[in-house]
């Protein structure tokens, strides 16, 4: 059984919600990546999304854009990241999910990429600029390697299509909670709960909410109708400010409070 | 050649093209595809485009035999397809009108667009003024500095121009910001993409709206010479004027198609925009196409004296035509383009856009190569008024 599946089974058995932080690999130097992953696991992350920097990240807002630029300026490459993840796998037990735009994979060579991340112990892949219609370029290879392709659905995805995407059945369904790009939001669309409920209803796999989620209140509110949250810009920002205390607090309080639900 | 029917249903030209966009945009581009398929069969829609093209844009544009330039080149006859005479001064308006009418059909009254030199932005702002649509234009901070007059023009026309400071602050980044804006406002906003790039159906739609260039050229040339030209030549940034010129000739195998990219300071320097000559296939802005990138797949900045060619990718259909060797792609340096800019101005009294000057420079070389009794048509995609300041600065700076 894949690590992602195991993780959600465990969460489910315990009645717990998932907290999946996102970090930008290479922000703060690639040498700090393993340490940061260890820290996130210690703070209680259910899985970790590792972002690959890209020169033209059209789905990302300013926080992640800037982190990506810092990482690229540090000389971060996808090859370097994969090597670090292999190293991290020796000490990290939770699932590692690589989030990357398609072009760095394409330049790497799709077959070599899948081969190398499999060896590195990567459990899943999120490719934000690759919708269902284009996934044949890599999905069969990922599947053969036992790596989950985590798919996204959004507020503009018709319910029939959400069903179609969800029933592909990989890992979890990444449910985008805003109309727009990544980045901290003060509030969500009024229909957000109805949307999450509708997604939950048709999805045979766990549903995680992501994009714009930054504070405790939002996390606890959203997880009333889904199985967990992905938190990106806030975590990236806290790492950039080296505010580890706040990060730990954010994650531990969520763990406690969401557990009671 | 068998009948050319690309793109296929999934928006691919061979392996190129496709819809590599965030899921949020899938609904909008699917709707756009459906709306376009219905619109192109609707006589009301097509006749409205024809009416505006004639009465508002000033089509058809002349096919002009450039006798003085032909004598100078000393070989094949050179004809100019005068897209510079369109309203707003370039071919960009052909597409802007078509897409704005399409947006109206979809009930979208808000338009977002990107612009590099400002020509597409001006064309979009113009059509939005005409049709009373809200218009927001993303433009790189660097380009805003270089093209201040076009910024003012767009503002006069009622558009809101947003300065893009991310990345290299040029066209590529303006596209990124326009896409981000579209992701957030997709339900009531149409993205009026200006080139034959981006996700399907844009490369097809823009090509179709621009193909009036090639259609007219074919008819005009046939009427005049009772034959087809031996070659057509057009400059390429994203590739919209070239695709508009090439498309009606693709099945006419006796007509050679030449696309001319910007070699900037030279294709062996880091400062050029020759995506087909020096790039590799990759995914950018929604399509698989030739892209300037480093070995890690990070997109590189393009460089050209002409802001309209300053783009690190090239439309998927051009990528395909290169791969099947139906079209030939060459490049022309900044210096050669500047020389051609002055040459055409002096010899023919026509000031070409710096973009189009690349095509002129190549045509002069090609004419000599082909020799007399052959015929070349150059797509003169835009007029050079917008470039006069930049050219003056460059010439006075003694770089020439």
TrEMBL record, chain A:
EC number: 4.2.1.20
Nucleotide-binding among keywords: no
Pathway: Amino-acid biosynthesis; L-tryptophan biosynthesis; L-tryptophan from chorismate: step 5/5
Task performed by this protein: The alpha subunit is responsible for the aldol cleavage of indoleglycerol phosphate to indole and glyceraldehyde 3-phosphate.
InterPro entries found in the cross-reference section: Aldolase_TIM, RibuloseP-bd_barrel, Trp_synthase_alpha_AS, Trp_synthase_suA
Family: Belongs to the TrpA family.
Lineage: superkingdom: Bacteria
UniProt keyword annotations, A-Z: Amino-acid biosynthesis, Aromatic amino acid biosynthesis, Lyase, Tryptophan biosynthesis
Signal peptide: none
Organism: Neobacillus kokaensis
Protein name: Tryptophan synthase alpha chain
Broadest EC class assigned to this enzyme: lyase
Catalytic machinery residues: 49 (proton acceptor), 60 (proton acceptor)
Subunit structure: Tetramer of two alpha and two beta chains.
From TrEMBL, chain B:
Keywords, in A-Z order: Amino-acid biosynthesis, Aromatic amino acid biosynthesis, Lyase, Pyridoxal phosphate, Tryptophan biosynthesis
InterPro entries named in the record: Trp_synth_b_CS, Trp_synth_beta, Trp_synth_beta/beta-like, TrpB-like_PALP, TrpB-like_PALP_sf
Catalytic activity: (1S,2R)-1-C-(indol-3-yl)glycerol 3-phosphate + L-serine = D-glyceraldehyde 3-phosphate + L-tryptophan + H2O
EC number(s) from the headed UniProt entry: 4.2.1.20
One Pfam family per UniProt: PALP
Family matches, as PROSITE patterns: TRP_SYNTHASE_BETA (PS00168)
Tryptophan synthase beta chain-like PALP domain residues: 58-382
Transmembrane segments annotated in the record for this chain: none
Record-stated family: Belongs to the TrpB family.
Subunit annotation: Tetramer of two alpha and two beta chains.
Entry function: The beta subunit is responsible for the synthesis of L-tryptophan from indole and L-serine.
Name of the protein in question: Tryptophan synthase beta chain
Gene name of this polypeptide: trpB
């Amino acid at each position: 059984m894949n690590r992602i599946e195991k993780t959600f089974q465990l969460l489910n058995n315990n009645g717990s919600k998932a907290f999946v932080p996102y970090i930008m690999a290479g922000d703060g130097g690639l040498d700090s990546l393993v340490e940061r992953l260890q820290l996130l696991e210690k703070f209680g992350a259910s899985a970790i999304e590792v972002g690959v920097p890209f020169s033209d990240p059209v789905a990302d807002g300013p926080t992640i854009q800037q982190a990506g630029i810092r990482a690229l300026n540090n000389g971060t490459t996808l090859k370097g990241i994969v090597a670090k993840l292999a190293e991290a796998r020796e000490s990290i037990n939770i699932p590692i999910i690589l989030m990357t735009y398609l072009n760095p994979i394409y330049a790497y060579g799709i077959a070599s990429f899948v081969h190398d991340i499999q060896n590195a112990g990567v459990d899943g892949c999120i490719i934000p600029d690759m919708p269902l219609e284009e996934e044949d370029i890599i999905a069969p290879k990922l599947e053969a390697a036992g790596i989950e392709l985590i798919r996204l659905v959004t507020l503009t995805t018709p319910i029939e299509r959400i069903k179609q995407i969800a029933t592909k059945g990989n890992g979890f369904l990444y449910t985008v909670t805003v109309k727009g790009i990544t980045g901290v939001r003060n509030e969500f669309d009024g229909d957000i709960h109805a949307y999450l409920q509708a997604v939950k209803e048709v999805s045979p796999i766990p549903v995680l909410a992501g994009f714009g989620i930054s504070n405790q209140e939002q996390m606890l509110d959203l997880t009333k109708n889904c199985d967990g949250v992905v938190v990106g810009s806030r975590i990236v920002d806290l790492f950039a400010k080296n505010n580890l205390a706040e990060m730990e607090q954010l994650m531990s309080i969520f763990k406690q409070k969401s557990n009671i639900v | 050649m068998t009948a050319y029917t690309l793109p296929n249903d999934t928006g691919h030209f061979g392996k190129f093209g496709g819809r590599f966009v965030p899921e949020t945009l899938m609904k909008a581009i699917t709707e756009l595809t459906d709306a376009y398929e219905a619109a192109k069969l609707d006589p009301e829609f097509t006749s409205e485009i024809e009416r505006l093209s004639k009465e508002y844009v000033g089509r058809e544009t002349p096919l002009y035999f450039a006798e003085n330039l032909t004598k100078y080149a000393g070989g094949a006859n050179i004809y100019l397809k005068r897209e510079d005479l369109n309203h707003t001064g370039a071919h960009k308006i052909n597409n802007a009108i078509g897409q704005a009418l399409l947006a109206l059909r979809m009930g979208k009254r808000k338009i977002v667009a990107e612009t590099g030199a400002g020509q597409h932005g001006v064309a979009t702002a113009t059509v939005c003024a005409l049709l009373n649509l809200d218009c927001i234009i993303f433009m790189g901070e660097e380009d805003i500095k270089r093209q201040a007059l076009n910024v003012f023009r767009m503002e006069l026309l009622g558009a809101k121009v947003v300065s893009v400071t991310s990345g290299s602050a040029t066209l590529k980044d303006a596209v990124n910001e326009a896409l981000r804006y579209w992701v957030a406002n997709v339900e009531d906003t149409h993205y009026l993409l200006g080139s034959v790039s981006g996700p399907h159906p844009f490369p097809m739609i823009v090509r179709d709206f621009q193909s009036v260039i090639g259609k007219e050229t074919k008819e005009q040339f046939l009427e005049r010479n009772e034959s087809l030209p031996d070659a057509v030549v057009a400059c390429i940034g994203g590739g919209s004027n070239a695709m508009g010129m090439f498309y009606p000739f693709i099945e006419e195998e006796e007509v050679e198609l030449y696309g001319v990219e910007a070699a900037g300071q030279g294709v062996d320097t880091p400062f050029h925009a020759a995506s087909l000559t020096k790039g590799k296939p990759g995914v950018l802005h929604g399509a698989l196409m030739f892209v300037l990138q480093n070995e890690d797949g990070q997109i590189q900045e393009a460089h050209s004296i002409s802001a309209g060619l300053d783009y690190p990718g090239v439309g998927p259909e051009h990528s395909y035509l290169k791969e099947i060797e139906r079209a030939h792609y060459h490049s022309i340096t900044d210096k050669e383009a500047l020389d051609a800019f002055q040459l055409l101005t002096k010899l023919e009294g026509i000031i070409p856009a710096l973009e189009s000057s690349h095509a002129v420079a190549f045509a002069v070389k090609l004419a000599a190569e082909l020799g007399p009794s052959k015929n070349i048509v150059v797509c003169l995609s835009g007029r050079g008024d917008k470039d006069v300041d930049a050219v003056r600065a460059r010439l006075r700076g003694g770089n020439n």
